[in-house]
Amino acid sequence: MYLNRLKVGEKLRADPTVVFAVGDFSIRRVLFEHVFFDSPYNTYLYQGLPPGPIYMPSTNAIDAVLNAEKHDYLFFCAKPGYNSEHAFAVTAEQHQRNASIYHNWLEKEGIR
After folding, report:
1. Which of 36, 88, 98, 101 sits most deeply, having the most CB atoms within 10 A of its CB?
2. DSSP secondary structure of 35-62
3. pTM
4. Could you tell me the fold of the domain covering 72-112?
């Protein structure tokens, strides 16, 4: 998904880069106040890859990028629940539906 965004010139908009930029690793939910934090590591504000790594990737993660699955997804968000699954989308409209479902679940769980 991130490779697709890079290919079409979209901002990565990756939450982990925002957490890194803010420097508060206790953040459980990235909010609007976080995505406007000015840092070259904030991929919501700046195009392309950050100026350096935010984490040391595993060998499996590197292999996954080098052998990336081909698809058209440009968006993803977590699915409701605690199982680390994600909902992927091709269009912004599909993504907004997925994100609304997830945000409603977060509110019900009291996750702020």
Report:
1. 98
2. HT---TT-TTTS-SS-SS-SS---HHHH
3. 0.83
4. Double Stranded RNA Binding Domain (3.30.160)
